[in-house]
Design a protein that fits this description.
The chain is mainly beta. The chain is built from 2 helices and 9 strands, in the order αββββαβββββ.
Length: 152
């Protein structure tokens, strides 16, 4: 009898918790853009004095050519100052940078042919990399990022 009561209570609980909304929901847009809108590079190091990770964003002069799926950029290391000392500035190189990008809404980015993963330290010394941007609806575009100059 106790088992039967528990089953009935469970059935009642399930029927009150479940949703019966079948209509009146708005249609969400299907995003079909696979664009790269911006590109950033930064250098990170451990700041002993502050006992924390420090970040310096590099200056990036870029051209984004949507029709060619191409981004060309020139990177410049900012002047030393504050915790970004001259000694730390000397350590900045293409093989120790972190890159990140702004992409279309709901798009995914996949590195191709050994390109460095975005958002983590990577080696950008090869100066040309390919990334596949996949829109939410499955549209794909292969983008090339070329570093034309690195100025310290």
């Amino acid at each position: 009898m106790k088992k039967l009561i528990n089953i009935v209570l469970l059935a009642l609980l399930m029927s009150t918790v479940s949703s019966c909304l079948k209509s009146g929901l708005e249609e969400l847009p299907t995003y079909n853009e696979a664009e790269i809108a911006n590109l950033y590079f930064e250098y990170r190091w451990w700041d002993e004095a502050a006992n924390q990770m420090a970040v310096k964003t590099l200056t990036v002069e870029k051209q984004i050519v949507d029709d060619d799926n191409l981004i060309t950029c020139k990177l410049a290391v900012p002047a030393a100052g504050g915790s970004f000392t001259a000694a730390i500035r000397q350590e900045v190189s293409l093989n120790k940078l972190i890159a990140y990008i702004d992409v279309s809404t709901a798009a995914r980015v996949t590195p191709l042919n050994g390109a460095p993963k975005l958002g983590t330290p990577g080696d950008f010394s090869a100066k040309e990399f390919k990334y596949l941007v996949t829109a939410a609806d499955g549209t794909k575009r292969e983008w090339t990022i070329k570093i034309t100059d690195f100025v310290k």
